[in-house]
Every structure is written in structure tokens, then in C-alpha cells.
């Protein structure tokens, strides 16, 4: 979504000085916008027991996570490093839900030690927990609906290719096994995809999950007290797209829960979300400076950042990030590719974009980098990840992560020597 008018109003006047002081490139996040989205989320779901567990994979900077705790948000973590990020932000116990996949004993142990909600992505996780006599406080079974839900293409995979979740037809057996664990509460999880701009997929999930709640209670006497509808709420990256209607989602969710309560005579389960993109993505931009103007088969604008800062356009065929030029009113337009310096031809923030004419030194803004931007970056080609700045509502700007340096790039070469001389295999 092109940055909000509020964010633009706050950033534009200070941008040249911020760029001079901190240097480019940088991601800059708008604390005021973050606060407004968190309040909107909480107000919209106030009619039903609910909690948002921000997906740390989208933005693992503990400074940002700490602000989210002010709104009662917990954290969805899918790796030990993400658990540490959440813990650094002050999260403890059920403030964390651990939604891993292909899970090891070691990472389970870390999540258990902190008292996190354990989301079980596969039957083998239940086996592991039983094997170590684990006592998770809350256990959540992640269900894959297979052909029971058709919501189109998704990175989460269809019935035949999905590596995530427990097959819905196997749920009763896995749940029966899970009741052998001394958990105080049990929940179900379903995430059908990512980038949804319409609430319907969540209604599909909720209907399916509520059926399973009844099935598990009738079949096993198991009480499910919470339902995690996952992340995946989309944002309109393209100016022509319409924003996700969060109130329509809340209304449909509450209607379904009320109807179920009346049918079943049971208290409604609490609703959990683990959204990342919706909460933070629109509240960040990457600011990068034009290094070169190049004329080849096309016109190129070469900038001082690349896919190490925002990998989505290179990674996903249809990914779009809006691009604007700072202080470009009244300039004529041209069609250009905006490129970084990696030795990969897909290191392009935009292809055939119509932008105001730029010259060396101009500042470009790559929009929607508040989440799933720096966190997805990598250091291929020795192109390092940029700094992160935070724009406070009073106009001050704080550096919350420095840029990577060449010393960081070589840091893993500096370790205590360790050399093994394997014993020859015994003669057969
Ligand atoms: C299990 C799970 N939860 C939450 C999320 C967050 O999704 P989003 O940031 O699109 O809301 C993801 C995204 O990959 C996910 O896989």
C-alpha cells in the first residue's frame, strides 16, 4: 500500500536530514502508524475473547516487538532465534506461541522452558513431547484441511503438496494421543494462505475448526478452548488494490462463534491470530539513493540497496512494491527498471515503472517494508543488510539496528579450531 498520508506527512520534511545524518540505505518505521493499526486490531475484535500473536518472522527487531506488547500482543515464533527475540521484548509463557514445522527436540525444549503455547504441526511432535514427559501448559494442533478447503494458490501448499499441519482426517487419532499430555488447555490452528485481501478464507477455516471442536468433544471428551486462525491477512501492495476489511472479518467471526455457542451450548473458544504483514508492513519504507543512471536496452536507475534489503520482488513472481521519488513534484516522467548491485538479473525493485525523472543523489522510497523485508534479507554476493530506523511521533528518529559491516560478514570465520581425525571403519 503506498505509505499512508500520515506517514508521508511525518517523514517527508525530515527525510533529507535523516538521510544525511544516518546515511543511506535504511528501512524507517513509523511508530504512530504502528500504534494506530494495533489499536484498530484490538478495537475491532473487542466483542470476543481474542489475542493477536504478532508473527516475529515478519519483523524480529526486539525494539519494534516491545512496542507491540503495549497493546497486549503476544508473539508467534517459529524458530529458537525468534523465541529469543520475543523474550528480549519481555514475552514470557503464553505470550509466545511456538508454531514450528519439522521440529527438533532442542527447539521444543527451548519453547517448553519458556512455557510457550506449543503448536503441533505434525504427529511426531506429540511423540517427541510424550517421549520427554513434557508438560506444555497449552497445546495447539495445527490442522491442514486438504481438499476440504479450496482457497486457491498458496505457499502453504494444497492437499497433495502441503508440508504443514496434521491431515484433517487424522486429527482425532493425533488429538487422542495428545490427551496423554498434561496440558491445561488445548486449541486448534489453521492457516490457509497468505496475502488474503478478503475475509472469506478465514470463515472457511473457522467453520472447519468449529466442526472439529464439536467432533473432538463428542468423540474424545476433549475441550478445545482456543482457535488460532493463523496469519495471512493481506495488504494492498498495489495502489489500485482495496485494503482488507478487518471489521468485516471480525463481524463474520463473531457471528459464527455466536451461532456455534447457541448450537452447542458451550462457551465459545478464544480467537488467536498470528498476523505479521497486516500489523507492520505498511508502516515501513526502504530509503535508498540513486547511484547511477544507466542506458542499455532499457533505462536503469541503479540504487544503493538491493535484494538483501527487500527480497520479495526477486523471490515471488507477482510481488510488487510501490516506488516513489522524494521531492519530485513537477518533474517529467520516464519508464525505468530500478535495480540494485547484486549479480542477479532479478535484483530489481521495479520493472518498467513510470517514475519522475531521477538523477544521481535522488532519494527513492520502496514502500511496504515494515515486515517481511529486512527479516527475509540475506548476504549473497557480500551485499549486506541495511540499518533500521524508527520515526517517533514527536519527529525524532532513532537507529534501532545498525547496518551490517564487512566484519560481520567474516565473523563466522573467527572460531576455536576444531579438527576431527575419524577412526578408520572396522574391517568387515
Ligand atoms: C504459521 C504462520 N503464521 C503466521 C504467519 C504470518 O503471516 P503474515 O505475516 O502474512 O500475516 C506465517 C507466514 O508465513 C506463517 O507461516
Sum this structure up briefly.
The chain has helices at residues 5-11, 15-22, 31-44, 62-69, 80-88, 105-113, 123-131, 171-178, 200-220, 246-264, 277-280, 312-315, 406-410; strands at 26-30, 50-55, 74-77, 96-99, 117-120, 138-144, 166-167, 185-189, 224-228, 270-273, 284-295, 299-303, 323-325, 333-339, 348-356, 363-367, 387-391, 397-401.
Average of per-residue pLDDT values: 95
Integer count of domains: 2
Cofactors, ions, other ligands: pyridoxal-5'-phosphate
CATH level-four homologous superfamily name of the largest domain: Alanine racemase
Shape: globular
Question: How helix-rich are the residues, as a percent range?
Answer: 25-40%
Largest sheet: 9 strands, mixed
Computed structural class = alpha/beta
Q: Indicate the CATH class of the largest domain.
A: Alpha Beta
The fraction of residues in strands falls at: 15-25%
State the distance separating the first and last CA atoms.
66 Å
Instruction: Quote the CATH topology of the largest domain.
Output: TIM Barrel
How much is the radius of gyration in Å? 24 Å
Question: Tally the helices: what do you get?
Answer: 13
Query: What is the number of beta strands?
Result: 18
Q: Tell me the CATH architecture of the largest domain.
A: Alpha-Beta Barrel
Describe the 3D structure.
Helices cover 29% and strands 23% of the residues. The chain has 13 helices and 18 strands. The protein has helices at 5-11, 15-22, 31-44, 62-69, 80-88, 105-113, 123-131, 171-178, 200-220, 246-264, 277-280, 312-315, 406-410; strands at residues 26-30, 50-55, 74-77, 96-99, 117-120, 138-144, 166-167, 185-189, 224-228, 270-273, 284-295, 299-303, 323-325, 333-339, 348-356, 363-367, 387-391, 397-401. The strands form 2 sheets. Strands 1, 11, 12, 13, 14, 15, 16, 17 and 18 form a 9-stranded mixed beta sheet that branches. Strands 2-3-4-5-6-8-9-10 form an 8-stranded parallel β-barrel, surrounded by 6 helices. A hairpin with a 3-residue loop joins strand 11 (284-295) and strand 12. The chain binds pyridoxal-5'-phosphate. Pyridoxal-5'-phosphate is lined by residues 55, 58, 76, 99, 191, 194, 230-233, 274-278. Pyridoxal-5'-phosphate (PLP) binds at residues 55, 58, 76, 99, 191, 194, 230-233, 274-278.
Amino acid at each position: 500500500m503506498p505509505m499512508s498520508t500520515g506517514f508521508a506527512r511525518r517523514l517527508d520534511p525530515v527525510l533529507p536530514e535523516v538521510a544525511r545524518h544516518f546515511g543511506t540505505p535504511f528501512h524507517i518505521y513509523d511508530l504512530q502508524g504502528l500504534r494506530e493499526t494495533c489499536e484498530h486490531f484490538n478495537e475491532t475484535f473487542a466483542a470476543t475473547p481474542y489475542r493477536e500473536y504478532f508473527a516475529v518472522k515478519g519483523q524480529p527487531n526486539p525494539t519494534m516487538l516491545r512496542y507491540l506488547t503495549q497493546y497486549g500482543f503476544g508473539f508467534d515464533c517459529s524458530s529458537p532465534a525468534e523465541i529469543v527475540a520475543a523474550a528480549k521484548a519481555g514475552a514470557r509463557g503464553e505470550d509466545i506461541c511456538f508454531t514450528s514445522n519439522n521440529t527438533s527436540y532442542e527447539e521444543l525444549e527451548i519453547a517448553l522452558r519458556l512455557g510457550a503455547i506449543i503448536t503441533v504441526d505434525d504427529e511426531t511432535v506429540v511423540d517427541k513431547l510424550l517421549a520427554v514427559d513434557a508438560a506444555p501448559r497449552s497445546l495447539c494442533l495445527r490442522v491442514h484441511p486438504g481438499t476440504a478447503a479450496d482457497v486457491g494458490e498458496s505457499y502453504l501448499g494444497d492437499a497433495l503438496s502441503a508440508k504443514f499441519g496434521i491431515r484433517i482426517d487424522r486429527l482425532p487419532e493425533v488429538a487422542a494421543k495428545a490427551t496423554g499430555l498434561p496440558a491445561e488447555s488445548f486449541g486448534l490452528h489453521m492457516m490457509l494462505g497468505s496475502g488474503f485481501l478478503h475475509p472469506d478464507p478465514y470463515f472457511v477455516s473457522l467453520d472447519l475448526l468449529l466442526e472439529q471442536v464439536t467432533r473432538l468433544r463428542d468423540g474424545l471428551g476433549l475441550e478445545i478452548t482456543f482457535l488460532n486462525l493463523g496469519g495471512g491477512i493481506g495488504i494492498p501492495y498495489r495502489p489500485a488494490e482495496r485494503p482488507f476489511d478487518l471489521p468485516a472479518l471480525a463481524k463474520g467471526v463473531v457471528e459464527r462463534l455466536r451461532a456455534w455457542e447457541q448450537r452447542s451450548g458451550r462457551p465459545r473458544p478464544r480467537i488467536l491470530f498470528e498476523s505479521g504483514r497486516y500489523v507492520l508492513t505498511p508502516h515501513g519504507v526502504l530509503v535508498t539513493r540513486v547511484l547511477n543512471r544507466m542506458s542499455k536496452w532499457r533505462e536503469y536507475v541503479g540504487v544503493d540497496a538491493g535484494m538483501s534489503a527487500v527480497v520479495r520482488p526477486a523471490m515471488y513472481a507477482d510481488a510488487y512494491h510501490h516506488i516513489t521519488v522524494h521531492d519530485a513534484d513537477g518533474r517529467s516522467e520516464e519508464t525505468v527498471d530500478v535495480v540494485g548491485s547484486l549479480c542477479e538479473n532479478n535484483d530489481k525493485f521495479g520493472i518498467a515503472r513510470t517514475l519522475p525523472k531521477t538523477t544521481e543523489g535522488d532519494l527513492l522510497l520502496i514502500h511496504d517494508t515494515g515486515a517481511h523485508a529486512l527479516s527475509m534479507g540475506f548476504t549473497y554476493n557480500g551485499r549486506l543488510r541495511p540499518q533500521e530506523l524508527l520515526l517517533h511521533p514527536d519527529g525524532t528518529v532513532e537507529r534501532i539496528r545498525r547496518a551490517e559491516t564487512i566484519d560481520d560478514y567474516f565473523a563466522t570465520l573467527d572460531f576455536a579450531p576444531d579438527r576431527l581425525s575419524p577412526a578408520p571403519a572396522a574391517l568387515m
